[in-house]
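Exercise 3.2. Students should predict the tertiary structure of the chain below and write it as structure tokens, then compare their answer with the key that follows.

Predict this chain's 3D structure.
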Amino acid sequence: MSETTETWLTQEAYDRLAAELEHLSGPARVEITQRIAAARAEGDLKENGGYHAAKDEQGKMEARIRQLNQILRTAKVGTPPSADSGVAGPGMVVTVKYVGDDDTETFLIGSREEAAVTDMTVYSAQSPMGKALTGAKPGETVSYKAPSGAEISLEIVEVDPYTG
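Answer key:
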């Protein structure tokens, strides 16, 4: 069994996901069931493209319902830590400088659900970089192993709460 991790969400993102779940669990389920029944009534299911397309869509929809239930069940909703904390973590906008490079990169540590509502780059707190940054403060240097196996070091330049 996989470990359950908290997903930080703004109230807006939580409300959007809850509305999507309500739609998929209600009207969308009824509509896809009706489409499957209508396609089934056409006869020969082996060569019925409409039936197979509707069944495929139903499977994807049910998977999304399960995903939304999991996200909403483990969501930590609200505002990120205060600006006073100055600690990198979920809900914080972090500016980093790669050690050995003068360029900086600014991104949000959050969930992909937040990425859907912001133009900012979002990195998961569960990613190798997100795990390395969580708990770090400006001026500190952290390292993590990238999926390629390379060791990457980052200096934290600035940490601010995400304001949307």
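Discussion points: Strands lie at 7-9, 75-77, 92-98, 104-110, 122-124, 141-145, 151-161. The mean pLDDT is 84.
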